[in-house]
Amino acid sequence: GKQVNSEKRIGSVPGINGGDEFQYKTELRVVGLHSKTMHGIDYLKRGDLRLATSIVASEGYGYKDTFNSGVMFYTGEGGNVMSKEKKTEDQKLIKGNLALANSMRHQTEVRVIRGEERWDRKGKRYVYDGLYLVEQYREEREARGKLVYKFKLCRIPGQPPLT
Amino acid sequence: GKQVNSEKRIGSVPGINGGDEFQYKTELRVVGLHSKTMHGIDYLKRGDLRLATSIVASEGYGYKDTFNSGVMFYTGEGGNVMSKEKKTEDQKLIKGNLALANSMRHQTEVRVIRGEERWDRKGKRYVYDGLYLVEQYREEREARGKLVYKFKLCRIPGQPPLT
DNA sequence: TAGACGTAGA
DNA sequence: TCTACGTCTA
């Protein structure tokens, strides 16, 4: 089969540095940064505890996440928030959302990858941005009245600057 | 940007041999075999004429295409034939279907890639199977009463055996 | 089996 | 903007 770094881990991935760039989400999987092709939040289980390993914040899907000076606000998953046809629902504190909440409680590191639209608007590129901690999260009512989770993540100081 | 063999061409791709294997459809694009990530039929335009360059026949989508002794029957695209929720419609002789029909009229080569389910059923692998010619096509009524195109392609003799 | 911050081209 | 033989995990 494919040569995949299949061991999910929390924290840095050996050989991967901040600023490293990738072309496809499948590449993120191959190198061990993020194993989910189409999900923004990846996580692992320690016993019965889900802990986030990485998130991908991609531009261009209307999530209105913000990203400034090492502080990031990230929208949770589920509820078909970004879907157009399907009716939206309240997001639930399960799966990836639960994992991120647990990562806050246990203060475990989360890898952050930013998916940026290319200048020519043809596809995206993904840049690894280093390790973050979840500082808080809250529930919000969106304009459509549905519940969404908003996670605040802060970049851990002392990491080498992006190359 | 990405190093992509961006020149669409009809016929062999330099450096690619029958039997060569790939892991993702995006890899097919990078090496120049098939540029469409999610479409089965790729084509180019010569003036106003669309000609097929390559097709990908992937297992596991219920298309019931056949593939025996260098003779292949391939279902056209469109009409949401394989969709479950959406209503199906008649396929039309446009886009990829039109390109394949033109490839028959002009007897131009079509690269054939087979997407095989892996033994562990985790994803697919794609194997380049060499050059084919479209020998005929016909319209058929499916069980649900909708029109679909069926293309018969024959492997061009004299190609080196698959490695 | 379904859900999810995928991709490229028409 | 939409379609299309995607791709993985739970």
TrEMBL record, chains A, B:
Residues 11-155 form the YDG domain. Its main location: nucleus. Keywords: Nucleus. It is found in: Chromosome, Centromere; Nucleus. The keyword Nucleus applies. This is YDG domain-containing protein At5g47150-like. The lineage of its organism: Eukaryota, Viridiplantae, Streptophyta, Embryophyta, Tracheophyta. The gene is LOC104760174. The chain holds residues 144 to 306 of 306 of the full protein.
